[in-house]
Amino acid sequence: MESPTQFEEECLAEHNRIRAIHGAPPLVLDRNLSDFAEEWAKVLLQKNTMEHREGHNYGENIYMASGKDVDGTIPVQAWYKEIKDYNFKKALFSPNTGHFTQLVWKNTTKLGVGRARSCLSSKCSDQENFESARAIAFSEPPMLQLSQAKAIAISEPQIPELFFENECLAEHNRLRARHGCPPLQLNYGLCRFAGEWAQYLADHNEFRHRPNNQFGENLYWASGSNVTGEDVVDNWYNEIKFYDFDHPGFSEKTGHFTQVVWKSSRRLGVAIARRGSSTWVVANYDPPGNYSGQFKDNVPRPRF
C-alpha cells in the first residue's frame, strides 16, 4: 500500500487534534478517498475554479491558496475558523460554517486528501451535509433528521485552552502568509513553557518578560475574560502601522509585530491565564525573532 505523503499526514494530524477538542473520535486516512480527492483537485486546477464535485456520497471541503507550498495544517485551520459563526444552541447547517461542521462531524470516520499545487480538495466519508441553494446537497438523511442529528454530532469545545491555542496559531499563520512567511507549528512543550509564565504573571499580578528566556516572547494583558486568540494576535500585528519597511530594524513600538511575522521562526507556544477580571497571554517563538541586522530578511513587506 502506498505510504501517506507528508501533506496527508499533516492534514490528518490537524484534523484529529481539532476533533479531540470537541470530543470527536479521530479519523483514519483512506487511500481510495485520497485518490478520489486528488482527481478533483487536478480538475479544479485545470479549470481554475472552486466548485464542489457532483455525483458522490462524501463530504467535501475545498481550499485554494496562492502559494505552491501549502502546509497541511493551513487549510484545516482555515476551515476551523468558521467556528466563530456557528451557533451551538441552534445546531443547524449554514453556508458560513459548513467547512467547520464537516471537520468535527462525530460520525465521520475516514479522511482522504488530494492536492494539486495550490488547490486542495479534502473529502470525508460517513457523513451528511445539505445545502440545496447551491446544489451541493446529499440526499440522505432527510433535512429534518439532519437538523436533529447535528445537535448530537457537533459538540462545543471541551478544552477551551486548546481552542485558544488553535485560534492564536491560525491567526499567526494567516497574517504570516500575507507577508510570504512560512506557517508556524504549535509546539506543546513551548505551550507548557508559556503557560508557566502566564500563570506566574497572573498569580503575582505582574506584566513583564520572562528573564533569561531563550525564546522569542510576546505578552498581552487585558481587563476582561472574553479574550479570543484572534484579538490577541491582531493586537500585536497592528503595530505594523509604526514599522518602517524602508529602514528595517527593532523598535519597542513594533517588536510584537516583527516577532509575529518573523520569517525564521518555526514553532509557537501560547498560553492564557486569568485572575479575576484580568487576562494574561504569553506567546513564545522558536527560533526567536527580533535579531539586530536580520530584519530586512525576516520582516518582508505584506504582499496583499
Overall mean pLDDT stands at 82
Number of strands: 8
Structural class: alpha/beta
**What is the CATH architecture annotation of the largest domain?**
3-Layer(aba) Sandwich
Largest sheet strand order? 1-3-4-2
Counting DSSP H or I runs of 4 or more residues, the number of helices is 10
CATH-level-4 superfamily name of the largest domain: CAP
Examine the coordinates and then state which fold CATH places here, giving the name of the CATH topology of the largest domain.
Answer: Pathogenesis-related Protein p14a
Shape: globular
CATH level-1 class of the largest domain: Alpha Beta
Gyration radius, rounded: 21 Å
Beta-strand content: 15-25%
Which stretches of 5+ consecutive residues score pLDDT under 50?
125-152
In total, the number of domains comes to 2
Give the SSE string.
HEHEHHEEHHEHEHHEEH
InterPro entries: Allrgn_V5/Tpx1_CS, CAP_dom, CAP_sf, CRISP-related, SCP_GAPR1-like, V5_allergen-like
Subcellular location: Secreted
Domain SCP: 6-132, 163-293
Keywords: Secreted
